[in-house]
Task: inverse folding
């Protein structure tokens, strides 16, 4: 994915086209208003709350009073922040922050960037908590509310379980043991489970298993009774939806119980309500792709099972200048060649990220300074793309700009290997100069090897002596490029790049008559 500043709230107005296709937008910031400038301001000692260090309880009435650009408070998950000073630093623009002015902005925040650590970014803007609302007791009922109805910081939490009619679909788990092994079994009650839908982590004696069931997440979170070895094995019976996690005992003694339940154990909630889990991954190699882009190969812990689906991204987390910074990146394959063997860098044990280094940036220079053997925190994967979108596809068109090429890598490998109905795959790759083209040789070799694949390179700043014409994305360019192999063939057009590129591309495609179902934008 692109290395762009985090945006706190979703786009509106003319920016909604990208949002409709899963995208997001940002606006140009004034000089001196970068993320690093914001971090410097928060550490300057300036009173950003206007309360001289006091924390207060904020009523809904008081929150509503602070709804102007020069006096803006917002609430996120029960915490109230004075974001007046942050207005000029917000990549989404002042108008986007104003959508939540004087109100609870939790839902707006979660729509686009629930992964941003707002508590770290806005800690110097904290005004206080929402005041608890009084709960009136009646003579007919007990004043003690059930757990799912308890007030949290004055806000009623969303219902995080399925309705009663769906309870028979709620997963369950069991466990059994032998002298040497402990096997945890999860009955997901969903056919078609695969290894990408199960994420397992064992850290510090704690077992965490997250099973993704369509839009829901079933979590097993337990502090194990006894120590187990680092290596774990995951077996999945796809037809019946059964997941087995096999643990090796360190001491061959009988267990009377699996362990103690931890936070959110055995919960079944929407994936969007589940917080991200991070694990420390080791950097094992770093190789140049172009003059400013590198391949980072990260090794997962031995006790982690994580396979990133096609078109999905992960988040890297670093502490920079005392502030937690998170950025999204899409893992790629080692190569575009379908016969390439990668025994040492298999998807189940390694993540490979293609990252452009921005010399004046905040995040990527720190990444580039990592040495072989250093560690970095990597999250679970997220994304809206589904393989079902291409299973019966006949024509696939890819529009990529710069490192917006990264989600196309695994997608190319997948469709050319697994989609039997595929007739054509065409990539239009936009870059500034020839030196910026990622994996040019591999793309050209793939086009020679597989007659279904075609690539076109579009340069905005071609060399004078080079061939070709200076061009940028346009309606006329796309009308020439996107052509069905036959009348009414099933097509998909994927777009990824900087926000203006994605927005323009989506608009041009809509103007050309392509439906929302025929266009997918890769974003985080």
Result:
């Amino acid at each position: 994915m692109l290395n762009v500043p985090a945006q706190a709230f979703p786009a509106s107005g003319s920016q909604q086209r990208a949002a409709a296709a899963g995208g997001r937008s940002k606006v140009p910031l004034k000089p001196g208003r970068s993320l690093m400038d914001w971090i410097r301001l928060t550490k300057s000692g300036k009173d950003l709350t206007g309360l001289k260090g006091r924390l207060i309880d904020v009523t809904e009435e008081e929150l509503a009073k602070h709804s102007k650009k020069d006096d803006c408070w917002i609430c996120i998950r029960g915490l109230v922040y004075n974001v007046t000073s942050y207005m000029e630093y917000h990549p989404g623009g002042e108008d986007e922050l104003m959508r939540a002015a004087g109100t609870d902005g939790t839902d707006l925040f979660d729509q686009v960037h629930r992964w941003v650590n707002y508590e770290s970014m806005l800690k110097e803007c904290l005004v206080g908590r929402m005041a608890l609302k009084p709960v009136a007791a009646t003579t007919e009922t007990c004043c003690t509310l059930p757990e799912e109805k308890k007030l949290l910081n004055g806000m009623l939490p969303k219902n995080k379980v399925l309705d009663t009619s769906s309870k028979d679909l709620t997963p369950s788990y069991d466990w059994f043991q032998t002298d040497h092994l402990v096997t945890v079994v999860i009955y997901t009650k969903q056919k078609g489970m695969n290894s990408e839908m199960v994420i397992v982590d064992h850290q510090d004696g704690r077992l965490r298993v997250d099973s993704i069931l369509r839009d829901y997440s079933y979590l097993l979170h337990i502090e194990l009774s006894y120590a187990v070895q680092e290596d774990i094995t995951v077996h999945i019976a796809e037809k019946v939806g059964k997941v087995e996690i096999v643990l090796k005992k360190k001491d061959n003694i009988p267990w009377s119980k699996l362990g103690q339940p931890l936070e959110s154990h055995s919960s079944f909630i929407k994936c969007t309500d589940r917080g991200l889990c991070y694990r420390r991954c080791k950097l094992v190699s770093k190789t140049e792709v172009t003059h400013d882009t590198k391949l980072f190969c990260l090794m997962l812990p031995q006790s982690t099972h994580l396979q990133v689906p096609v078109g999905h991204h992960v988040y890297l987390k670093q502490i920079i200048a005392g502030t937690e910074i998170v950025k999204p990146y899409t893992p790629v394959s080692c190569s575009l060649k379908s016969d390439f063997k990668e025994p040492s860098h298999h998807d189940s044990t390694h993540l490979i990220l293609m990252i452009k280094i921005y010399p004046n940036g905040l995040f990527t220079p720190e990444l580039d300074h990592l040495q072989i053997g250093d560690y970095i925190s990597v999250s679970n994967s997220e994304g809206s793309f589904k393989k079902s979108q291409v299973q019966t596809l006949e024509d696939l068109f890819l529009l990529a700009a710069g490192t917006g090429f990264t989600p196309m890598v695994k997608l190319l490998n997948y469709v050319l290997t697994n989609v039997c109905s595929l007739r054509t795959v065409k990539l239009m790759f936009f870059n500034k100069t020839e030196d910026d083209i990622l994996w040019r040789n591999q793309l050209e070799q793939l086009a020679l090897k597989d007659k279904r694949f075609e690539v076109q390179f579009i340069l905005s700043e071609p060399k004078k002596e080079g061939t070709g014409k200076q061009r940028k994305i346009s309606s006329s360019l796309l009308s020439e490029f996107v052509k069905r192999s036959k009348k009414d063939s099933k097509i998909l057009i994927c777009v990824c790049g900087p926000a203006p590129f994605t927005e323009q591309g989506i608009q041009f495609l809509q103007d050309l008559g392509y439906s929302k179902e025929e266009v997918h934008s890769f974003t985080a």
Summary: Confidence is low (pLDDT under 50) at residues 1-24, 135-166, 339-345.
